[in-house]
Amino acid sequence: MLRKLLIANRGEIAVRINRTAQALGYRTVAVYSEADAGALHVTEADEAVCLGPAQANASYLNSEAVLEAARITGADSIHPGYGFLSENAEFARACRAAGLVFVGPPEAAIELMASKRRAKEAMVAAGVPVVPGYESARASDAALTDAADALGYPLMIKASAGGGGRGMRLVRQASELAEALTRARSEARQAFGDDELILERAVVDARHVEIQVFADRHGHVVHLGDRDCSIQRRHQKVVEEAPSPFVTPALRQAMGEAAVRAARACGYEGAGTVEFLVGQDRTFYFLEMNTRLQVEHPVTEQITGQDLVAWQLAVAEGRPLPLTQAEIPLHGHAIEARLYAEDPARAFQPQTGTLLRFDAATGEGVRVDTGVRAGDRISPHYDPMLAKIVAWGSDRDQARRRLIRALEDTVVFGVTTNRHFLSRVIDHDLFGQGNATTAFLEQTFATSPCLSPQPPALAELAIAAAILGTDGGAGWSNAGTGAIPLTLASGDTVHHLRLCRHDQALTVTEGDRSHTLTLMSRSRGQVDFIAQGVRQVCQYQLQGDCLYWQASGQTWSVRDLTHQPATTDAPDHGGEVRASMDGAIVEVRVSEGDTVSPGQTLAVLEAMKMEHPLRATGAGVIARIHIQPGDQVGRGQRLIEIRQPEADTTSP
């Protein structure tokens, strides 16, 4: 019997595993980096051990430190969660050598499925259909280029060793191939320590559908239905649902049987996910097998009523699977949205900062998995996911309605998130019809207005004025009805407002326009008002001279400049390249004195597991470079100075 479980992960998945383990009677051990010393997963565990500095390589990927944490706490088992060491066969082998039970599949299965090339070869042998492509051990760029010409375009480059969208590129034409190979190899090397690449024919307008499988050491293998993960950005999942609205019962059965064959073919044990691409003709192809618990496993739990972590622990203890295939129920529909600290208006760049307020919505059929709380700092060292918001319904429309409401009612102040973007995706007609493919976000939301935050109109500014103009938000003032001047800055726009109060009525004027609110009540962080005959509630947070507020599912922020001296100065970053986020410089492509053109990549910044090119916004000459590969940089830090080219004044 196992008694003490070490959870070798962080964030929401560590919290989620910990809660099931404790409910089953296990003692739990958390591990953490110096940056996560006060994290939720640390405080909820029975014991916790610091692994090292914030960098993942020195902490969560440090297998020796994890094993030492297990030794000093007396843990008898290790659950790796997902990411980090979860699909590291050497770590699984080291756990077993140390007398620890690894809550995951055998090392041989991990090694086989960790290589997309070897996995595809095994699937062909098992009779599982695969996407046509090119797989060769340690293929050179020249070999891949020749293979690409033979395979045809569009095609996918994939890191043989990886997942999560890293080391993956869609190549539409031959002219894009060389740069895509370079970037894919670099990302794969950074993320997995292995830059082997394979090619696959791109299945256009496909669905990404996966099957959850489970196997025990007694020869039982089952599947727990399908999940549709077609809503993706940069090959990373954004929204997942179960079951897929595209999959017919006959197709579900065929894919389930193929997934079970795949699991048997590699001698599998525990939880795994077999991923398929499904064409418009409902022909399906094996993509890969993830030898771990998936981020999106909650939607399967919601429609089956099963706890997959409990199943994992049962299998790890040598017990048979809790249910046979015929006994596994599938009820209703579930949809999950991944809430990220990222800015949709800036190409979804990851965001860092302090969570001033985080109130995840709850309600009937709503589940929230998170590892953060108000006051936590979102750092550049790890994935920027804040929470998974999941809604279950008796049918798909009910699940959609519940999820939209939950997203709109979730309050996050302090960092920019994709919350509003997610609600618009779920509310979109194409998604509602069940017709969204892997191309949906690129085709439908590339220029959508919901990517850019709408500036506050006078109606929204009136709410801000109501909060800021009454004793600085400290309480309602009954003194007089004279006009109060307010100067509020929203981005680069400055609003000069006048606020007049008469009893509960408050009128805000800007120029020749005005808007009136009737103030009803206010409690900590919430104001209740009537506008144009409609009573509404607004959430808000004051932080210094900055106000954040949320109403009708949208969030705004302003700075109160009322008591600051007037200035016409504005920061001028022209001729400079600054860091778009916290991260590390992995490549500098120019030297001082080089002439550059608009859009040219000058350096590459790695942040939150992805590489981000830093480009010149105009033509010029590199005047000074302040960075070199390996440097850690902060958001807004000046990296490269560009001197504008001097005008040619010579006479013809």
TrEMBL record:
Q: What does this protein do?
A: This protein is a component of the acetyl coenzyme A carboxylase complex; first, biotin carboxylase catalyzes the carboxylation of the carrier protein and then the transcarboxylase transfers the carboxyl group to form malonyl-CoA.
On whether Transit peptide is a keyword of this UniProt record, the answer is: yes
Keyword Kinase attached: no
User: Any idea where the Lipoyl-binding domain is?
Assistant: 565-643
**Recorded catalytic activity of this chain's protein:** N(6)-biotinyl-L-lysyl-[protein] + hydrogencarbonate + ATP = N(6)-carboxybiotinyl-L-lysyl-[protein] + ADP + phosphate + H(+)
This protein's pathway: Lipid metabolism; malonyl-CoA biosynthesis; malonyl-CoA from acetyl-CoA: step 1/1
This one is known as: Biotin carboxylase
Q: Where is the ATP-grasp domain?
A: 120-317
Question: Which co-factors does it depend on?
Answer: biotin
Cite the InterPro entries for this sequence.
Answer: ATP-grasp, BC-like_N, Biotin_BS, Biotin_carboxylase_complex, Biotin_carboxylation_dom, Biotin_COase_C, Biotin_lipoyl, CPAse_ATP-bd
